[in-house]
Amino acid sequence: MTLNPAKDMQPIFPAVDAVPKAKREKDCCICYGNVKTLSRPPPSHVCKDYTGTRIPNKACKECWEAHISTEVEVKPFGQVACMFCPEILVLNRQDKKLCDWSAVGARIDNKYRYDMKYTNATKYKCMARCQNVNTPLQSYFRSTDGRIFTCNLCAFAVCTDCDRPEHVGQTCEEHQSTLPAHHKEAEADTTSCFKRCPECQIPFSTEKGCGYVQCAAGNTMTKKGVVGGCGHRFCEHCLIPWTGDGSAYLGGQMQHGTTSTGALCRYYVRDHDSDHGLSHRFSHQSQAEMKAALPEELHEQFQQQVDMMTADAEKRAGDKMKREARNAEAGEGEDAGSKKRKISKSNIVDSEAEDDLDADPWQSTEAESPPPKPVKVSKRGKKAVGEPTGPKQPKQISPETKANREKQAVRREKRKGLEQKKREMQNPSAEMLAA
């Protein structure tokens, strides 16, 4: 029996073409992890660098999920920036190619909070008779419900613009004018502690420090519920926008105006520039230019603020000079050390010059003694090594330091006495045993 290798003998292993090709793993440019597929934004979004050149924008799904969940924490869903460029992404939660949206929601503390951010909803609490510690926050949509919030439990209506009961047929200002005097005083005290964003009217508390304010973008979860914001940047004192038309970013320092109490904004009379992360600083004008741009009734107030700032600067300069003088007297400052080094070096040079003047120029130099070795000065400049110094000046000690040292000495004596008694109790002598 003859075998035909071409027909009768079959290969033990299948052909190479029959084996399916495995997907080659790729490296994520963010986390450098090996994954089979990389995700990129929608095709309509093109990432470019500052030169206008297209840059790669592929990353693994986990990196996109982490980035989007972090952005949603501080921004509305429609203002999420790209991970590779500052442009806004046009996201669609139905798009499964970019990332797993359920994982994005799981990364945030509360899934309900994530849904509130996506729908841009806010929460409101009834201020009427049903208000107690167990009263839940109720959904309120400004775009559809208007300015009136109606409680689902007691049907009490509240005006969200002024946080007062609904005033039918009256504006908020007219209703405020009809309130009793003590209500107005309480309202004035509250207004001094809280202000409203000029864009979305969300209230915020005023604190000490810088006047740069950015409205909490999106919805921020607080202990009192979810509070919505718009991300608007403005000055806390005079409420002018920080960027855009009519802002100090474009018009300079003179764009700042007066506060609600009629006082000049502190940024108007500030003696140095501020940028707060913007691409360039405010243009700084002279005091004469700023004063000329104000109406005459504000000239006196402007001069008072300038004088106050000048006096404060002079006080700080005087305090600094006093500190430097104290350090120089104690020999602890850098100025005192440098002066000592200069004096020691100048003494060496003067002594050498005097020796040269006293020497006879016609005398032979063969019998001359070797020149004296230069005096070595320590690095700290406190004393010259190899040359006797003058009498050591006693160090000045303050009365407080003396009192503290005396107290420490008394404590040491007491401690020694207690230790001696303890040793005697542990190892009693014959006299103590006899007693």
TrEMBL record:
Q: Which GO terms describe its biological process?
A: protein ubiquitination
Q: Which residue range or ranges hold the RING-type domain?
A: 24-269
Q: Which InterPro entries match?
A: E3_UB_ligase_RBR (IPR031127), TRIAD_supradom (IPR044066), Znf_RING_CS (IPR017907)
Source organism's superkingdom?
A: Eukaryota
Which stretches does the entry tag as region Disordered? 312-435
* Molecular function (Gene Ontology), one example: zinc ion binding
Which ranges are annotated Basic and acidic residues under compositional bias?
312-329, 402-425
Q: Would the keyword Transferase be found if you checked this record's keyword annotation?
A: yes
Q: Which UniProt keywords apply?
A: Metal-binding, Repeat, Transferase, Ubl conjugation pathway, Zinc, Zinc-finger
Question: Which PROSITE patterns does its entry note?
Answer: TRIAD, ZF_RING_1
Please give the name of this protein. RING-type domain-containing protein
